[in-house]
């Protein structure tokens, strides 16, 4: 079974919680609960091509790190060069007709 991509935000302030790849709403609620009360959130299914890309300074991917310094440096690199493209950009910035939000709880 393929995973589905969901965007989650708070329904009162519309603050982003995150993007989640999961099979179902029960697992989505469990994952969101690790960060925030799912009862305060709403979600939308992103059913269109989407990508997270690094267009500049990119972290290494799929290699072991020798010490914690390397891991910290990679976290910084992940933040610096990341770009949300296609449907992710549409959801983040309210473009297009993709988004229909539903309460999570």
Question: Outline of this structure?
Answer:
The chain has 105 residues and is an alpha+beta fold.
Description:
It contains 3 helices and 6 strands, in the order E-E-H-E-E-H-E-H-E. The chain is an alpha+beta fold. It has one domain. The strands form 2 sheets. Strands 2-1-3-6 form a 4-stranded antiparallel sheet, sandwiched between helices. The chain has a two-stranded antiparallel sheet with strand order 4-5. The longest helix is centred in the last third of the chain and has 14 residues. The mean pLDDT is 86.
Key traits:
6 strands; 4-stranded antiparallel beta sheet; two-stranded antiparallel sheet; 105 residues; 30% strand; 3 helices; alpha+beta
Structural class, from helix and strand content? alpha+beta
Count of spatially separate domains: 1
Q: Give the H and E element order.
A: EEHEEHEHE
What coarse outline follows from CA principal-axis ratios?
Answer: globular
Strand order of the largest sheet: 2-1-3-6
Strand content: 25-35%
Number of helices: 3
Terminal-residue CA separation? 24 Å
Mean of residue pLDDT values: 86
Please state the CA-atom Rg, rounded to the nearest Å.
15 Å
Question: Which regions are unreliable across 5 or more consecutive residues at pLDDT < 50?
Answer: none
Q: Note the main sheet.
A: 4 strands, antiparallel
Total beta-strand segments: 6
**Percentage of residues assigned to helices:** 25-40%
List the helices and strands and how they pair.
Elements (H helix, E strand, L loop, with lengths): L3 E7 L5 E7 L2 H9 L7 E6 L3 E5 L13 H14 E5 H7 L8 E2 L2
